[in-house]
Structure formats: structure tokens, C-alpha cells
Amino acid sequence: AVVESLWVIAYSGEDPIEKKEVEMIAGRGVEGDRYSRQTGTYSALPEKGRQCTLISADSVKKAAIGTGLRDLESVGSLRRNVAIRGLSAADLLDAIGREIQVGEVTLFVHRNCVPCMYNEKRNGVPGLMEALWDTGGVSCEVVRSGRVRVGDSVRVSTGAKDLSRVSHDKPPAFFVRPSQRPAEDVKAKYAGLAALRAELETKDPEGARRLEAAHNAVGLRFFPMERSKEEEAGFATAVCAVLPPILAVLGVYLLSRV
Hints:
7 helices, 11 strands
């Protein structure tokens, strides 16, 4: 397996820039990339696996053809750092809990990097998230620094997995395909996002703003909408105003059926 292409995004919401080589720094990530600079959309939600992302170019191309997603400009449009040729998406997922040697760099694979609606909207390709759910790549930690160049070899460790090193805060429901996610999981997700918003606005207001702004730019919201007290009161008043006539009409109808 070899490195097919390399991609860096300097700041949340910016377009990917293709590189011939990149420097990776242990404990930080890809030099110049938004997650090593703490300027990424999700930098307010830190985890070791955000340091570098890998994706199978072969599997993306196969999935895009198989599902009719021919409008995808390039594998770089999926906003992953390293596109690999010669390893499938299944191979990468199987590497969770193992180290991968990429050029001079050693990475440790923490989790499945599932695609998101933000990415789908940025690409303007409806159905992208569902179609590429199993081929979104993996999130990695940079364990040993070095340079990575296009054409460098990629080797997955053949040793036993060390799942005790895997670190992320994602619940099991996060990895369930959205179309198969139970309603209670969706409800729990939004309740969790409301709590997260309150936490981030105290701990990292700039990160919270960046997170919401990136999603707003593609017509989405990351955090659930909150009604003000005035809006809540107005909603309650409106319900109280329309409910009696509805009940009256319903009562007349029921009496006519007796």
C-alpha cells in the first residue's frame, strides 16, 4: 500500500490543499493543518485521533461508482489528510487498536472517522453520508514524528491489537448509520448537544462559535435551537388561543356521531 495523495486544511471551513509532502509532529498532527493549529471545526472537542486522518482511495472510488456519487470532485473533498491506495476501508477499520507506518511516521488508529452531514453539504452531493458511511476512513494519533511523501509505503502492524490505547468519547450510537439509528438515540444525541453547548460557551466560547459557524455556512445547525423565554411564552399563548376552538369543533363532531 502507498500514499496516493496528501491534504491539508488550514482553518475550519477552508478548502483542502493538496501537498506532495507533509511534516507530522508527534502529539500534534499534520503541520499546517487545522487540527494541529487548533483551528478546526471540531477543535473544541479534542481527542487524540483528530491529529491525522487516513482514508482508502480505492474504497471511496468504488463506493462512489457503486452508488452513483459521481459528482465527488476528488478524495480530498472528504477532508481527510492521507489518501491510501492498496488498503481497503475494511483494512483500515481492522487497524483500530494498531499502529500504522506511513513513510517516516508512526500513527496509532483510534476510531472509525464516519462521514458527517457537514461534509455532505460542503460537497453538494446528496446521499454522500449514507453512501460512504463505511468508507470514511480512520482517525489517528501521531506517535512518531517525520515526513510523509506521496508514494511512500504504508504498513499496518501485524501485532495484536491494543484496544486499551484507544481513546475517544464517542458513544456506540455515533457509529450507527443514521438511517438505522433508533429514535431514542437521536433524542439522546440532541439532549447531549444542548448540554455540550452550555459547557463550551463557558470553557471555549471561540471553539463553540467556530463549530456553529462552520455548520451555518452550509445551511446546518450543530447545536439544537433554543427558544428564549419570550418565545416560549409566545408559543404557549398561541397554543392556548387555538386549542379551545379546535376542542369545540371536535366536540360538535363527536356529538354528531352519537
